[in-house]
Amino acid sequence: MIFMINIVSFSGGRTSAYMVYLMEDKRKNHGWDVEYVFCDTGAEHPKTYEFIRKCVEHFGINLHCIKALVNQESGVGNTYKDVGVNGIGFDLTTIKENIRKYSTFSIMNPYCTERLKTTSLNKFCNDKFGKGNYVNWLGMRIDEPKRLKNMEVTPDMFGKKLHVNPNVRYLAQISDFIKEDILDFWLKMPFDLEIGEHLGNCVFCVKKSAKKIALAQREDPELAKLWEECFTDKETRVLPANKYPKGVIYRNGQSLGSIIQMFSDFSNNEIKNSIHKTKSLDSGSCGESCEAQFDLFDGDKND
User: Fold this and answer.
1) Per the confidence metrics, is the pTM higher than 0.70?
2) Listed residues 151, 170, 197: the one ending a domain
3) What is the pLDDT of residues 133-177, one digit of tens each?
4) For residues 79 and 123, is the Cβ–Cβ distance under 8 A?
5) What DSSP state is assigned to residue 12?
6) Residues 134 and 235 in one domain
């Protein structure tokens, strides 16, 4: 394994940043060949982008920052551009371009991760490192068994032979840290991700619960306005087969506007308490990151 290139998918969250910390030890002290990649949707919280830059500076890593490039020509798939760490930030242009070409994504049709992350990541890695010349590291912890695909998870798994996809690796295979351990780790560091967990990943992600969306809108109304415009302006494309009108992208036929109205009589603290009571921040909830899924041998998708 260590004789191949180890590609670490850095999502910008605490868990994958902890994986960067561990992989830097592998690179510096154990001779591993390691590369780091971040796929930017343009919809992360501004504080997430600050955290990413701090990680790059603190750990001294070279981070490839990949953005999807959308060709509006029919039959031509997304490509990518490495914009560098100074080229990332909150900018919904790429999302607008995807919606213009492929129609609105939503909880009913959540193509966003595949087109904004996976396709670009696979093309970049195959172009730069060569198909089949690398293994892929994703920041899934041992307390996220449903997200550990092709991996047998047992309490005494460490030090034992694992049945895994030979081209995919997980944080859980080099660390037994669970969510609370990760949070403790960052409390001891000179910097941290300075946002609540409900703001992680794309701030208004279609997979998040209505409570998290409502709270995010309260805390960042300007970002919410820009997000809503992506799904309601005149250039927004909705497939004829979609039974929902423009802007309806969340569970139970909800739009951002209807979610705001639903929680209009609740205070921020009441929404926060409800999130905690329903365990919406537990491991495996919609607060976990949407990882780009590497695809080494099935060919390029979405062409």
Assistant:
1) yes
2) 197
3) 999 999 999 998 887 765 554 444 444 444 456 788 999 999 999
4) yes
5) S
6) no
